[in-house]
Design a protein that fits this description.
The complex is a heterodimer of chains A (279) and B (446). Chain A has 279 residues and is an alpha+beta fold. Chain A contains 11 helices and 8 strands. Chain B is of the alpha/beta class and 446 residues long. In chain B, helix 1 packs across helix 4 and helix 4 crosses helix 7. The chains are: A alpha+beta (279), B alpha/beta (446). The interface between A and B is medium-sized, with 15 and 18 residues.
Chain lengths: 279, 446
């Protein structure tokens, strides 16, 4: 009777001891060393898995940072805050870079820019661009068919009531996906502090631009002459702003004859308002 | 005809609408005062201009130099003075450098144009003549013909087919060429067969062109190595792959070319042009074009100088009949709608179709009901509904798995779709994305 109970206990106990020892040995022998920093980095990332860093998701990016393949500031979505945290984990100091947001550089909506034909087909900018460069007369104009809107993982773009794509700067994380999908290449990354932008990318001659758009850059160079800071230059028939030099005085926007330069006049620095009045 | 007509599985039959111009002779179009000759009218590298503004040019003179093997020279279609060389829109929609020539109306021939004795020429000499004459596939693919006639040594070619199917609606260009220039067409076929050292030649013609069939058969007579194959009147019978399959029973493998199954296909117009260019020495400077549709006052078959603007041609046909809705270069199935008439006729143009406003409908796009019509008609046996759905979602990887690259862009799926879904257009988007990705990979590997 006692044997009937004792034998199974002894034999099973023996087997479990042997297996236990085997497992304990194996867990030491074949252990995969995981850097605890991968989990820590992963923890501070936004977790959107947008892929803007160039890696297939936040996990892959975290691994790449720890291995040393990716820079600590590689997450454009997280920006400076995340870069700082990742830097702290990795023991690196992060030099602060200004956050950039996307902006669609076209003002040629249905009221100011002409169409050359009526488009019927797939509602997609890439598809429309296959037919004679798209329905807009201007080859650099936003067609408003929403390829960027659908591509944005953060819902930061919309088509406004006049048929132009607009970026919601609050929601934009700077992942640059819209920049890469736009067939017209008219979305650019702009520093958040910038209050002045040229809302046109047309490299056509001024005479041609006037034919089909009332708000396009005609390369008249008035802005270039008006700028005291050497911050705006006309090359290839288009004015471009050097955001490093621009101090947001907004004089160019005031002088622009076609109003193709956008400026946030409501938030203009008062000292520039005075100087403008003097002129 | 009593016997069963040759055809293939799939395809559809849009209204032919060929009656507008079917019985009208080819007439010479008015030669305009200004011609616009683009330096890229073919598949391959664009030409480089060899004339400059102010130069005097003669008819048939080379104005664009061939750049690379897959390219052909461009010739002046009139005599006169070069006015300017400017970027100008071409039928494909983009702008290309274009030589604008003021026509002096004299048609003074270039000195290089001399008649030749066809019997004294070797195969290589003929290839060079074809290249120098700027001949490309005139069906509208514009692939340089001399390249087609120089297959790699490892490909054994045993059959030449001339494509006289002309399955597109409205167009009667090839039909009229076969009726009026049957001798040249058959002689051109003999030249091609001679160059390739091929014993068997076929001319595939749809059954809706009895006059053309009769004309060609009369020229062939008892010749045993050239045959007319009468094909069923069905779209896209003129698709190279389907034509080869119908006539020889051989199927081109996915991603392959006709030469992979030992066949070379040329358009009947190309064959006639080859023969004419050899005999007369005149390069390709004019083209037969059908101007048709209910939107044009007087539909005609015209022999048009390359570089004539569309507006001149429409004028030549009595202008618009009522309000135009769409002007299409090529046929309504595969052609390209134009937004401006300031576009010159190039080697790719085989017809201009003007649809009146009431015929152009902007159909509402409805959800797919999985009826399978597109699968039924697809001549390549693809599943357009799936490729299109993946393309619209941006999943080009899946499009690739469904063989989007094999699509011949015939548009049968879009035509038949009861929900009016833009199937072919979305497949084309996927194709371009896949091709761009492949190119990126190829350049990354290097």
């Amino acid at each position: 009777m006692l044997n009937d109970i004792l034998m199974p206990i002894v034999s099973l106990g023996g087997i479990s001891l042997v297996f236990g020892a085997g497992l304990a040995f194996a867990s030491h022998k074949f252990a995969i060393k995981v850097d605890h920093r991968v989990d820590e980095v992963r923890e501070v990332l936004p977790g959107a898995n947008c892929g803007a860093c160039g890696y297939p998701g936040c996990d892959a990016f975290a691994t790449a940072v720890v291995v040393g393949d990716a820079p600590v500031s590689g997450c454009t979505v997280g920006g400076a805050k995340v870069a700082e945290k990742v830097g702290a984990i990795m023991g690196q100091t992060v030099t602060e870079t200004e956050k950039k947001v996307a902006k669609v550089l076209c003002n040629g909506d249905c009221e100011s820019a002409k169409n050359k034909y009526e488009y019927q087909g797939v509602e997609d900018c890439v598809a429309a661009a296959m037919f004679h460069g798209g329905p807009k007369e201007c080859n650099y104009g936003c067609m408003g068919l929403g390829t960027c809107v659908r591509a944005c993982p953060f819902d930061a773009l919309y088509i406004n009531d006049k048929g132009i794509a607009v970026v919601d700067e609050e929601k934009c994380t700077g992942c640059e996906i819209c920049v890469s999908v736009c067939p017209k290449n008219i979305i650019e990354m702009i520093p958040v502090s910038s209050q002045v932008q040229v809302m046109c990318k047309s490299e056509d001659k001024g005479r041609d631009v006037r034919k089909y758009c009332t708000v396009g850059c005609i390369a008249c160079k008035i802005c270039e002459k008006a700028c005291e800071y050497d911050a705006i230059k006309v090359n290839d028939n288009i004015a471009r702003i050097d955001y490093e030099k621009c101090v947001n005085c907004m004089v160019c926007a005031e002088k622009c004859p076609t109003k193709s330069i956008y400026a946030d006049f409501d938030n203009r620095d008062p000292k520039f308002i005075k100087s403008a009045d003097k002129n | 005809m009593g016997f069963k007509l040759l055809s293939f599985r799939g395809g559809t039959r849009p209204p032919g609408n060929k009656h507008f111009t079917k019985n009208k002779n080819i007439e010479k179009a008015k030669v305009p005062a200004l011609v616009y000759i683009p330096l890229k009218q073919h598949v391959g590298a664009p030409c480089e201009a060899v004339v400059k503004p102010g130069d005097q040019v003669k008819m048939g003179q080379v104005i664009g130099k061939q750049m690379g093997f897959i390219s052909v020279p461009i010739h002046s279609s009139v005599s006169g003075k070069v006015k300017s060389i400017i970027p100008f829109p071409i039928p494909q929609g983009n702008k290309e450098m274009t030589v604008v020539i003021e026509n002096d109306g004299l048609d003074t021939l270039d000195d290089s144009i001399k008649p030749r004795d066809i019997n004294a020429l070797s195969a290589d000499e003929i290839r060079n003549i074809i290249l120098d004459a700027g001949i490309v596939g005139l069906g509208s693919a514009t692939f340089p013909t001399h390249v087609k006639l120089s297959p790699p040594a490892d490909k054994h070619i045993d059959t030449v087919i001339l494509n006289g199917a002309e399955c597109e609606s409205y167009l009667t260009t090839d039909d009229r060429i076969m009726i009026e220039q049957a001798d040249e067409v058959v002689a051109g076929l003999r030249v091609i067969m001679g160059v390739l050292d091929v014993k068997m030649g076929y001319i595939g013609i749809e059954s809706n062109k009895p006059e053309a069939i009769a004309a060609i058969e009369k020229v062939i007579g008892n010749e045993s190595n050239i045959r007319v194959k009468v094909l069923k009147d069905k779209y896209p019978q003129g698709c190279e792959r389907k034509l080869i399959e119908t006539i020889t029973g051989r199927q081109i493998p996915s991603g392959g070319l006709p030469m992979d199954v030992g066949v070379i296909v040329n358009n009947v117009g190309t064959a006639a042009q080859i023969y004419k260019s050899i005999i007369t020495g005149m390069p390709l400077i004019e083209k037969v074009i059908t101007v048709s549709g209910r939107g044009v006052e007087n539909p005609r078959n015209l022999l048009v100088r390359i570089g004539t603007l569309l507006e001149d041609l429409i004028d030549d046909c009595g202008g618009y009949a009522g309000d135009p809705g769409k002007v299409i270069i090529g046929g309504p199935m595969m052609g390209m709608a134009q937004h401006s008439l300031e576009v010159p006729v190039t080697k790719c143009v085989s017809g201009i179709v003007v649809l009146p406003k009431e015929e152009v409908k902007d159909e509402e796009i409805l959800p797919c009901i999985r009826c399978g019509k597109c699968v039924e008609v697809c001549p390549i046996h693809l599943m357009p509904l799936h490729i299109s759905a993946y393309s619209l979602k941006g999943d080009y990887e899946s499009c690739k798995k469904f063989n989007a690259l094999d699509c011949v862009e015939c548009g049968s799926c879009s035509y038949i779709c009861p929900a009016k879904r833009p199937l072919q257009h979305s497949i084309k988007v996927a194709k371009e994305a896949i091709i761009a990705e492949n190119k990126g990979k190829a350049s990354g590997d290097q």
